[in-house]
Amino acid sequence: MPIYSLIEKSTQKEIEITCSFNELEAMIATGEWERKLVPPKIVSGVGDVRSKVPSGFRDRLNQIKKNAGPNTTIKT
């Protein structure tokens, strides 16, 4: 579910809430809350661990896998 930023009109207190859009509309319809527009949060660095390790480490894993035998579960 998305995260919304809201401001309570009477106290000007800001909160972040995780809810559905229908729940957000219901809160705003009460007249007590106002939606605060904020820039979206950007996620960076997406990928798995194997794509972020240096090539020397991958070479070492390949050597270990080669010497570990036929029943190894090492993924390279």
Task: Tell me what you see in this structure.
With 76 residues, the chain is of the alpha+beta class. It has a domain at 3-35. The chain is 30% helix and 18% strand. The chain contains two helices and three strands. The protein has helices at residues 21-29, 55-68; strands at 3-8, 14-18, 33-35. A three-stranded antiparallel sheet has the order 2-1-3, covered by helices on one side. The model has no long low-confidence stretch (mean pLDDT 84).
List descriptors.
76 residues, alpha+beta, three-stranded antiparallel sheet, 30% helix
Please outline the major beta sheet.
3 strands, antiparallel
How many extended strands? 3
Low-confidence stretches: none
Q: In order across it, which strands form the biggest sheet?
A: 2-1-3
From N to C, what is the helix and strand string?
A: EEHEH
* Mean pLDDT, all residues: 84
What characteristic shape results from the CA principal axes?
rod-shaped
Query: Strand content of the residues, in percent?
Result: 15-25%
Q: Specify the oligomeric state.
A: single chain
Q: Give the % helix.
A: 25-40%
Secondary structure category: alpha+beta
Number of helices: 2
Radius of gyration: 25 Å
The N- to C-terminal Cα distance equals 35 Å
Q: Care to give the gist of this entry?
A:
The chain has two helices and three strands; from the N terminus they run ββαβα.
How are the SSEs ordered, and which strands pair?
Blueprint: E1 3-8, E2 14-18, H1 21-29, E3 33-35, H2 55-68
